[in-house]
């Protein structure tokens, strides 16, 4: 007896998405024919029962994600994720991959040929950058002013690098003088800095860093996971050698395929490696063949792995939305709404973690928790009453701050007003006197 399975997505009154399972038996079952019996020996084997939780419909609540990411995907991006699967080497999918590459080049403002989407989240892109550029014994200098510098230093160390650091207190960024002194002293082959340090809400200026690096025979690696599309970033013009980001922030796609790009200088270091890239999965020499880097039109792609088909669809649509809005307009929207949020928070008597206005990251705002207030109680109250996510601090700001994200589809004036009202209500509920007129 043949069973076909049909899934249907249903929107229920409880504002949850539900996948319901329907069974249709084959015509043979309606004429009294039964399935062939298993052999006695086989039927005597005991098997584990199916987990009961998988025999009920999948329920996913609707929430407004105003934390540091992921952000809510637009209906258009979600619809793209649900399109029919293609084979990972079908010509139609290869065309979509080419469109994704062009979209990343636009978002990064680069003409780098080695530009693609790593199969994985932003952490995968960070690791891909490190494993391709770092060999045992390489001196790598990492700027640490939050969690992401610490994370990159860890990855470099795991790959055999001699890791050196320059540090700033969380909430501050680095000056060109800080960076030049560190590079001239440590003489690294690569320098890492995070453009948008989301654990602290800090925006790091990039102008001039590339010149310092290249004047000292050093590559520049930049993390733009939380900044891409929300603040100016020009890979070629700013002399960035390796740049990576994520899909789930301003691009508004589900995490799973992450943009990355390598300059000719970076590709030169890759070509001069004395050892193979230690990760097969992230080896850019092999991924280049899959993504068609350097191939003439009509030349066959080489199989490397099965790409995350639906994630690539979604990333393509996120990049298409960015292209339609225009990069400058998208940046302006994020900056304007961030200013509204900052003003509203300060009007409530709350303190922003980053004192210097020019150093505030537009996409993720970090707010100090008032004395005597439990950050988790407030965040839970807002989630339970409003179905809005705001997050706690991360790394050095853990337990001391809230992080509020305005990214991509969520970056609207309505959401600014919504989260301010919810936060005011929560604070008053826990006995905090609030000054705001909201």
Automatic annotation (TrEMBL):
GO terms for cellular component: peroxisome. Coiled coil: none annotated. It catalyses: glyoxylate + L-alanine = glycine + pyruvate; L-serine + pyruvate = 3-hydroxypyruvate + L-alanine. GO terms for biological process: glycine biosynthetic process, by transamination of glyoxylate. Pfam families: Aminotran_5. The modification N6-(pyridoxal phosphate)lysine is found at residue 249. PROSITE patterns: AA_TRANSFER_CLASS_5. Residues 30-52 are annotated as: Disordered. Its cofactor is pyridoxal 5'-phosphate. GO terms for molecular function: alanine-glyoxylate transaminase activity; L-serine-pyruvate transaminase activity. Keywords: Aminotransferase, Pyridoxal phosphate, Transferase. Its EC number is 2.6.1.44. InterPro entries: Aminotrans_V_dom, Aminotrans_V_PyrdxlP_BS, PyrdxlP-dep_Trfase, PyrdxlP-dep_Trfase_major, PyrdxlP-dep_Trfase_small, SP_NH2Trfase/AEP_transaminase. Substrate binds at residue 403. The keyword Acetylation does not apply. Residues 87-416 form the Aminotransferase class V domain. SUPFAM superfamilies: PLP-dependent transferases (SSF53383). Belongs to the class-V pyridoxal-phosphate-dependent aminotransferase family. This is Alanine--glyoxylate aminotransferase. It comes from Branchiostoma belcheri. The lineage of its organism: Eukaryota, Metazoa, Chordata, Cephalochordata, Leptocardii.
